[in-house]
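Appendix B, example 12.
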Amino acid sequence: MAEKPHMNLVFIGHVDHGKSTTVGRLLLETGVVPAHVIEEYRKKAAEKGKATFEFAWVMDALKEERERGLTIDVAHKRFDTSKYYFTIIDAPGHRDFVKNMITGTSQADAAVLVVSAAEGDGVQAQTKEHVFLARTLGVTQLIVAINKMDAAKPGYNEKRYNDVKEDVTKLLKTVGYKIDTVQFVPISALKSDNIIKPSENIKWFKGATFLQTLDNLKVPEKPTALPLRLPVQDVYTITGVGTVPVGRVECGVMKAGDKIIFQPANVAGEVKTIEMHHEQIPQAVPGDNVGFNVRGISKKDVKRGDVVGHSDNPPTVPKTFTAQVAILQHPSAIAAGYTPVFHCHTSQVACIFEELQKKLDPKTGQVKEEKPEFLKTGDIAIVKIRPTRPMVIEKAKDIPPLGRFAVRDMGQTVAAGLCIDIEKK
């Protein structure tokens, strides 16, 4: 049978609002995880004084996570609906795990924002941060699951649902989501209300179940019309074959026989063969993870972080670039001259904040301050960046997958951003 269309789904939202439980419930209800496994987890969770964590444990396979009751790594799990097959990228809610959130979200076709309707919950600091990040990193399709309806006061209360929905709507509007394209759905992941079948407890809600909202998503068009860009993840030497770089096609199409160039290595060659899942294929399209044999290059010529393009439209290696950055967390302040590591596609390059040009109002995007002296946590700014060694980055509006980056320093993610302009070498 033909494979269903595939989508990557990321779960975002404040810690303890029920992301992992929602994911676990979904995997149980779609038959990915057998009921007896959940039952076993339920007993163990109760023994450890972590009752109600049984669903969360489905995703949190790491022992350390169980004991801390947190989600650390980005776990990948597959499940099917009638229409699609999904890979879930479970994005952690805790601040020190924002890096995973960024690497996870930048691959996501859609996001589920989980917001708790329990007393005193609703929109929280990380709800805001994750929504802003999802938007900055280009996730346009959004489902808002208003969870813990059973814990609203009184339980399953329509007014509480509407109040939370209104707060979330305000937040989404400030960062630029089109509200008419956002799906809102009330659920209780713990009690299985409105997950795959309508709930007696939420009779007042006439909309879709959670599963139906997933089937309402649209598969994003593969950016085949854009220029070819394939960031290299690894390079192998295979006896009798030669040099085989491996990576995922982000945009464009690569065919056997194509003349290609690697940047910033500045090495050209010709694609002899392309392989995916150990089978030769005539061409690779966006989303395909492939290995390809290149005539005319050796293993020492290219490395992880290089990007492949066609020789007549090579990847861009800028002298400097202008970026819009969101400062997620920094212990003090960032001034001109700051040099953290930029993670862009598969490359990691130290870059200098050469000039702080404008500080923007996060809610409206309007300029708040020209030439600020410094930037601190929560600021959004336009900055000029100078890489300390050659790297490939593209304007986000021209080639979105290669225009996004995360900024890391001191073992944490300091900022995330988009490239808006480029000064060519």
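The two ends are 50 Å apart (CA to CA). Helices lie at 19-29, 35-47, 56-59, 63-68, 98-105, 125-136, 158-175, 210-215.
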